[in-house]
Amino acid sequence: MTSITMEEESKLLIVLPGDQLPESGLMEDSSAAHRLTLGPGLAPMDDDSITAVKAGILKHNAVGNRWWVESNQRRYVAAQGESIIGVVTGKSAEHYKVDIGASQPALLGVLAFEGATKRNKPNHNIGDLLYCRVSMANKDMEAELECMNPTTGKADGFGELKGGFVIKISLGLARRLLDPKNLVLRLLGQHIPFEMAVGTNGKVWVNSASAQHTILICNAIRNSEYLNSAECGSMVKSLVEKM
Amino acid sequence: MAEIPHKTALSGKLLTMKFMQRQQEQETRDKLVKEQNRIVTEAHWVIDQAAVDLPKPKFQVDYEPSFLQMNATERSSVGRMSFQKFNSVVEKSASQAAGDQQLERELKRQRQSEISDDEMANEMGRSNKAKKTKEVARKSSNGGQSKKPTTNRRAPPKPSGSGGKFMKPKE
């Protein structure tokens, strides 16, 4: 186990599993509180030290003294509050079984839709695409989903996704696509009219007027994983010109 | 008054009656329940708190398993997007949600830098005391010029003329 020295804020701090975080660095912001919020990738060890358990870049947010490791992987682990794209694989009296790409299928209650009552149930078939929200997830049980905003009770964009095409990407890219400052989607939107849904479980749904446009958008998204903003711009331009 | 020669013994017939039986059954039931409770509580494991001296953990840790909650400015939870009016419903709701989230973030950031009323009162009490001793010390070294810039967060500065001493009203 190696210990990390805290460097300046501007440098990227890359951690490997087993790297301990120094206590002095962790207490920079909240001297009195000693409260810490650990995000994914960090875990406390038996000797009261905080250790990284995933490889990636150590990130910190002063609001709430949050620390986490920005890592990448392709297998999704359900977490509460995330929006995901799932495929219905089974139906029972009170639940739909939905495949979300995690180790186990998730359960979607039949009444967890906007305006659903026992008499007015939505009817989804096996193979349907649903954009849902994870309402409960822990490592011991199957995740539970819902197709509505829990506070308002309205659909708010959740529900069935009709038509279109789904591609599988890594979780890190999916999170970057949710960034409001993301460049690829804005550039594509300037040239092509389309709609899309990003699932935090590494699935992206794209729908546009023609198959050619859909293929172009999917290729652009896949290519943009390791490109910086300048390269992104030129990549999108070259793809659009070929169309 | 005639003395009772012996304790009243209940006759056999009385004992066979239903209401007497009920009392008996209640008693046996209570005894069984008590026995069960005793067995269960004895089977519980208990740590002898005095013997083990656990140190207090250095940090109080909250766990957050989702990346989306970590850095709210970088992630928007608006997953569905539409461009060039392909799906007008989605576009409208997406822009509305984005506006709401921006507002929420700004408010959160503002609230981070603010302090509650109790803390403010404490701060003012503390700074008043410190100011009194500071003013007296500076007066002696400065020679009467003690002006301080005013901010909203600190106690209002004392008038420089008095120097911290109580001025008697002129008669």
UniProtKB/TrEMBL annotation, chain A:
This one is known as Ribosomal RNA-processing protein 40
- CDD domains referenced in this protein's UniProt entry, alphabetically: KH-I_Rrp40, S1_Rrp40
Q: Record's InterPro entries?
A: Exosome_RNA_bind1/RRP40/RRP4, KH_dom_type_1, KH_dom_type_1_sf, NA-bd_OB-fold, RRP40_KH-I, Rrp40_N_euk, Rrp40_S1
Instruction: Identify the gene encoding this protein.
Output: EXOSC3
Alphabetical keyword list: Cytoplasm, Exosome, Nucleus, RNA-binding, rRNA processing
Segment forming the signal sequence = none
Residues forming the K Homology domain are 164-212
Q: Where in the cell is it found?
A: Cytoplasm; Nucleus, Nucleolus
Protein source organism: Linnemannia gamsii
Can you tell me which family this protein belongs to? Belongs to the RRP40 family.
Task: Please report a single Pfam family linked to this protein.
Answer: RRP40_S1
Which part of the chain is the Exosome complex exonuclease Rrp40 N-terminal domain?
36-75
Main location per the UniProt record: cytoplasm
Which Gene3D superfamilies does UniProt cross-reference here?
2.40.50.100, K Homology domain, type 1, Nucleic acid-binding proteins
Automatic annotation (TrEMBL), chain B:
Matching entries from InterPro entries are given as:
MPP6
Tell me which domain of life the UniProt entry assigns to the organism this sequence originates from: Eukaryota
Basic and acidic residues bias locations: 102-114
Regions of biased composition (Polar residues) lie at 139-153
Give the region (Disordered) as residue ranges: 89-171
Q: Which residues form a coiled coil?
A: none
Full protein name: M-phase phosphoprotein 6
Protein species of origin? Linnemannia gamsii
Gene this chain is encoded by? MPHOSPH6
